[in-house]
């Protein structure tokens, strides 16, 4: 009995000590932000913490208002999204859930105290039992390690979600700016086509143009009006997609401004040494999959440890009957008569092999996505450069020569108008090629797990 009560006292002390474990102030958010911020190039919070009260909300609103006071650049758009996207904010708070599970796993289960009073035959009996769950005490260290890995995995997944939002925002910003630029250019083309249609009408009245020539100009003007409407629809849709990612509503959603045009094409594309290995090493979803496999392996070990000991409780008993006190102890042990735990072990082993294959497939996908994204990035750069250096300059040269010949009465107005249409097509093609390049760069960054490296393996 003495040893039993010593054990009970020791267990009570362990319980007291485990109860001293406390939650961190930010639920691991600072660690996750430390992973994501270098990869996105933007801060994930204001003053290093998630908004919890009105003061934090006002500080966040002040930062966002400052960003929106000027035309919104791509980096500023990413910053606003990381601070204000509510779906991402919800992901941040999942860290608190995972940390709570980790702290809980390190604590013993509360002891159970049973009290029983009975009477009969003129006698009164009392039974008092204090029970501790030995299984939870034995497996607590392993459970803590498992939940620790799960917590680390959650940090990686939350940081990866921030990277996804950043990449989506960059793509949406490129799409919105390009759509607005194309819509503005479509209006210019429509205005020119309207002037051509009016000229055709006057020349028709003067008897210089046929009805067919006039109809052609009117049809072209009608087509440009339709293209303006189509471009404006695309611009509205692209802006609203960006607005959703930014988490804006009300006046802010209507008032924020975008640049008039996309950034210019850089002097040269990035030369990356080994995009496949970079993706496998740097992508957070691969790192999270590795931790998931380790977590599953640890769970399998725990299942094997407890396959024969599912319920094991130790209790100190004190009974009093008729004024006579008796002491003792009791142990409850589940007897593996019908269930020997083989099904649980088989399930754990199957889950582990499933996790291994998912990790392998994730690595295969990451390598393929890296190759595809890099090839698209290089091809998009070459196409945009071709438009910039060859197509657009040649169209301008042709336009200048056409205008000179028209002024010298060596060319007809039909040829002048036809050349203007060809030039408009070339300019629109360049805008689209530039959009594809910046989108391809955002896709490549997402495939490699963050912003493009600036030194290792890269030549400017």
TrEMBL record:
Keywords: Signal. It holds the Pfam family OEP. It comes from the Bacteria. The keyword Signal applies. Residues 1-23 form the signal peptide. InterPro entries: MdtP/NodT-like, OMP_efflux. Belongs to the outer membrane factor (OMF) (TC 1.B.17) family. This is TolC family protein. The lineage of its organism: Bacteria, Pseudomonadati, Pseudomonadota, Betaproteobacteria, Burkholderiales.
């Amino acid at each position: 009995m003495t040893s039993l009560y010593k054990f009970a006292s020791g267990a009570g002390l362990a319980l007291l000590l485990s109860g001293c474990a406390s939650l961190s102030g930010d639920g691991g958010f600072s660690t996750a932000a430390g992973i994501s911020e270098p990869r996105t190039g933007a801060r994930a919070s204001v003053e290093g913490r998630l908004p919890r009260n009105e003061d934090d909300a006002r500080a966040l609103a002040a930062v966002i208002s400052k960003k929106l006071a000027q035309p919104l650049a791509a980096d500023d758009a990413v910053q606003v999204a990381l601070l204000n996207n509510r779906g991402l904010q919800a992901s941040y708070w999942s860290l608190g859930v995972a940390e709570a599970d980790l702290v809980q796993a390190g604590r013993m289960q509360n002891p159970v105290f049973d009290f029983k009073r009975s009477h009969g035959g003129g006698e009164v009996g009392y039974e008092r039992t204090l029970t501790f769950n030995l299984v939870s005490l034995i497996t607590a260290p392993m459970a803590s390690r498992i939940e620790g890995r799960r917590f680390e995995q959650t940090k990686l997944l939350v940081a990866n979600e921030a990277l996804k939002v950043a990449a989506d925002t960059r793509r949406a910003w490129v799409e919105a700016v390009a759509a607005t630029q194309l819509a503005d250019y479509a209006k210019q083309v429509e205005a020119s086509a309207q002037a051509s249609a009016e000229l055709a009408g006057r020349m028709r009245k003067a008897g210089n143009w046929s009805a067919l020539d006039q109809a052609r100009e009117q049809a072209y003007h009608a087509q440009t009006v339709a293209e303006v409407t189509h471009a404006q629809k695309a611009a509205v849709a692209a802006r609203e997609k960006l607005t959703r990612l930014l988490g804006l509503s009300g006046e802010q959603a209507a008032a924020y401004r975008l640049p008039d045009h996309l950034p210019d094409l850089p002097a040269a594309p990035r030369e990356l040494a080994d995009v496949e290995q970079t993706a496998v090493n740097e992508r957070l979803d691969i790192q999270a999959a590795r931790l998931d496999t380790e977590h599953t392996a640890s769970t399998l070990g725990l299942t094997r440890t407890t396959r024969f000991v599912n319920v094991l409780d130790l209790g100190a008993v004190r009974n009093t009957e008729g004024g006579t006190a008796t002491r003792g102890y009791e142990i409850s042990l589940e007897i593996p008569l019908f269930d020997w735990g083989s099904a649980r072990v088989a399930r754990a082993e199957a889950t582990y092999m499933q996790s291994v294959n998912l990790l392998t497939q994730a690595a295969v996908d990451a390598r393929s996505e890296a190759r595809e994204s890099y090839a698209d990035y290089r091809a998009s750069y070459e196409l945009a450069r071709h438009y910039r250096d060859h197509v657009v300059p040649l169209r301008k040269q042709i336009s200048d020569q056409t205008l000179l010949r028209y002024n010298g009465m060596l060319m007809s107005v039909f040829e002048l108008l036809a050349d203007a249409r060809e030039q408009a097509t070339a300019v629109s093609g360049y805008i689209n090629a530039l959009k594809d390049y910046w989108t391809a760069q955002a896709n490549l960054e997402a495939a490699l797990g963050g912003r493009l490296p600036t030194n290792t393996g890269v030549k400017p």
